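=== Structure Prediction Worksheet ===
Name of assembly: unnamed complex
Input type: mixed (protein and possibly other molecules)
Chain count: two
Listed entries:
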Amino acid sequence: MKTQLIKKDIYWTGVIDWSVRNFHGHTYTTGRGTTYNSYLILDERIALVDTVYGPFASELIENIRAVCDPARIDYIIANHVETDHSGALPAVLKLCPKAKVVGTQKCREGLYKHYYCDMDFQVVKTGDTINLGKKTLTFIEAPMIHWPDSMFTYCPEEKLLMPNDAFGQHYADAKRFDDEVPEGILMDEAVKYYANILWPLGALILKKIEELRKMDLYIDMIAPSHGIIWRRDPGKIVNAYVSWAKQETIPRVVVVYETMWGATERMARLMVKGLMDAGVDAGLFDVNRADRTEIVKEMLGAKAFMFGSSTHDNDMLPNIAGFLEALKGLKPKNRMACAFGSFGWGGGAVSNIENIIAGSGIEISQPAFACKYMPDKEETVRCYEFGRAFGEKVLSG
Amino acid sequence: MQKYRCQVCNYVYDPVLGDPDGNIKPGTPFDKLPDNWVCPLCGAGKEEFEKV
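=== Predicted Assembly ===
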């Protein structure tokens, strides 16, 4: 089976990338691989919606051939410039002499800056449609969800939304639909995807979902460009996006630390005991042992964060520094945080952590706690109390 | 004149240049932009902008 019918005369012609473990450079770990979804619509005129990552071009072409001769394709809809969806486009175009590429003006410019080849390109704007015969395609510009060129394609006759990278997950599976895979894994990957890719764009996402609601689109299937297709209850993922975009959280504290000789780690473990005794949900992550993108996933729904580091060269350790820089770019809102860590002489880690927290727009809800070398008996109690007091603040705030 | 930066995509509104594609003439200060003006790069509203 190369392709799969997802709607009447609409085929999934994408490819499954079972083995990829680091996505776009080393910014996202894909422990479950991913898929590059492409959809072929057969009608009086034939349209291909998105292609796949370049190294998989021949597999995409094979999949198209299993449905129809690529030379018959009239339109290739390019919802998004990014190379995991457009990489195969130049190869496919060679086999589609009459195909027009359809996308936003920014997509046109972006594709040229990627591939430097001339394409017969039709620029579309929100509300523009293409008539395929029995079916039509309507386009909705979606700038910065998640690139300036991004666009959604909607087929009203089939109640099908193809929103490209929105509502996706990096999840390779032989199955294509949400009702065929374990829901827990699916939502876990959807959370991770939103947290690592879309978190800073919440304000635009809320506006876009509002716009879609005003357009009165009837949608019974959402077919993203990565992962599993939503058909059982597409409203569920849309509502989840609304909640994440509004930065809704639960009383949970994610503690992230880096330690040299174990003192900061000991402090962190004592603080988590305090959090637990305060009755707040908590998770503890060593930034050197846990995966960064998994920690970010854990943070999306958490009300509060604690960051710890030993002092080294009068500053925090380099890997927690990198982690905090990455977190800054995700622009978390409505969160509480505090810092802690060990030092030997001059210190510096906790104050610099506080500077980054403040610069990220996160509220410092408790002054930092620093401890010289290993915590003594009294400091051990203070670590526990530090966690407990913060936990109580999180529960009440 | 004061420049403003879009916090979503980093586009900088320079009043000297205006936004000709959005029909904003060169020399238009940020606070004189119409309320419905959006970032020409990403579509974010004026409230997403901060002083450079």
